[in-house]
Automatic annotation (TrEMBL):
Gene3D superfamilies: 1.10.340.70, Ribonuclease H-like superfamily/Ribonuclease H. It comes from the Eukaryota. Residues 106-274 form the Integrase catalytic domain. It comes from Phytophthora megakarya. One of its GO terms (molecular function) is nucleic acid binding. This is Reverse transcriptase. Keywords: Nucleotidyltransferase, RNA-directed DNA polymerase, Transferase. One of its GO terms (biological process) is DNA integration. The keyword Nucleotidyltransferase applies. Pfam families: Integrase_H2C2, rve.
Length: 396
């Protein structure tokens, strides 16, 4: 039976609400977005599987999460139930499920550095224990702008302090200039005199995290997990010798992916512009009405939640309570001598507190104890020590 005029009218009344022609002025009904009056292509059901593959499994997708994949698609395309389809597709992705790492450890980290502009503070970290690639690389050095989250990488063969300084000059200095501060852990390569001399030449400051305190540089630690999770999804399982090529290629994908903390992409926050991707060529060029300065300011304010700050402050006060200078405490040192089993070792050791700072740092009385550790530690590595009187001995 041929459809009649009434059937066509009924179908048109339903379709008008979901797509529009460039000649019409009726906007697409959806949840509010920051960018107004953008035209998007309505994807038919026969092409949705291809679009999901492009936005998630392809190199322009990078095997990112549900929200990042959704934000990458929704800026250019539309169909009913898009978020539900993306959610189902990402959760069923075998490569993503097998490449996930353990979740980060949660802990109070007040006093973390809060940069005011792009590349004011650059954090660096090594990814070690990687197989030798076809190009002879066995290490991956990562740089990240702590303001925008922009990530850069450098596969390396050697990890001496001179090699680290040359990698910083190539990846950061030549493209964005010298940063005001370099943030890193207590790796000997970053703490060496050679790297300190290089820092002095750049007129930059250098600040290391406390020992066994990765939360102090949590953004960089999470970035390492994100990069390696994406690389694992593409690396060949035969010999894993192509990891360095995939790592360099995935930097653009990670920097153009939506970040829930900053509510935008690292590429936009660092360069104040949008990249020209393959999918964007299907659309016309549209200008953005919001000023870059106001946009960045709003996103920075929304990223800092007053409720979250208050929660960590209360939690931090509970951590600091009960410690005073001169107290005997237990210090957690998760290392054992060579040849000993960590499962059978005593990892808590007992020095005394010499000084307490308001930024959760504690100075311990190390001289004379036989321990070879940095006297400044984070307060979360301590616990009170109860001192009992010694057992009396009888003279015979």
């Amino acid at each position: 039976m041929e459809p009649g005029k009434e059937d066509y009218e009924s179908l048109r009344s339903v379709c008008v609400g979901f797509a529009r022609s460039p000649r019409l002025s009726t906007p697409t009904p959806e949840r509010p977005r920051n960018k107004q009056s953008e035209l998007r292509l309505v994807v038919p059901e026969t092409l949705r599987a291809d679009m999901l593959h492009y936005s998630h499994e392809d190199f322009q997708g990078g095997h990112q999460g549900i929200n990042r994949t959704f934000e990458r698609l929704r800026s250019e395309f539309y169909w009913i139930g898009m978020y539900a389809d993306i959610q189902k597709f990402v959760r069923e992705c075998v490569d993503c499920a097998s490449a996930k790492g353990r979740p980060p450890v949660i802990g109070p980290s007040p006093g973390n550095i809060e940069p005011r502009y792009s590349f004011e503070v650059v954090s660096i970290d090594f990814v070690t224990e990687l197989p030798e690639s076809d190009r002879g690389n066995t290490y991956l050095l990562l740089f990240q702008d702590q303001f925008s989250g922009y990530v850069m990488c450098k596969p390396m063969r050697n990890t001496e302090a001179q090699d680290v300084a040359e990698a910083y000059e190539e990846c950061v200095f030549r493209r964005f200039g010298a940063s005001s501060m370099i943030r890193h852990d207590q790796d000997p390569r970053f703490m060496s005199k050679v790297f300190a001399r290089f820092r002095d030449l750049l007129k930059s400051k250098q600040r290391a995290t406390l020992g066994y305190r990765p939360q102090a540089n949590g953004q960089q630690e999470r970035s390492v997990q994100t990069v390696m999770r994406s690389v694992r999804a593409y690396v060949a399982e035969v010999d894993q010798s192509d990891w360095d090529e995939h790592a360099e290629r995935l930097m653009f994908v990670l920097n153009t992916s939506f970040d829930a903390a900053s509510l935008d992409t690292p590429f936009y926050l660092s360069k104040n512009e949008r990249p020209w991707s393959g999918a964007g060529r299907l659309q016309r060029n549209y200008s953005y009405a919001l000023a870059c300065g106001e946009d960045l300011q709003k996103k920075a304010e929304r990223a800092r939640s007053a409720a979250e700050t208050r929660k960590w402050r209360e939690h931090s006060d509970r951590v600091k309570a009960g410690f005073e200078a001169g107290d005997s405490v237990w210090l957690y040192i998760p290392k054992v001598h060579t040849g000993l089993s960590r499962k059978l070792a005593h990892l808590w050791h007992g020095p005394r507190i010499d000084e307490i700072n308001d930024d959760f740092r504690v100075k311990l009385k190390i001289p004379g104890t036989g321990y070879r550790v940095n006297p400044w530690v984070h307060i979360s590595r301590l616990k009170p020590r109860a001192l009992f009187p010694k057992r009396p001995t009888s003279e015979t």
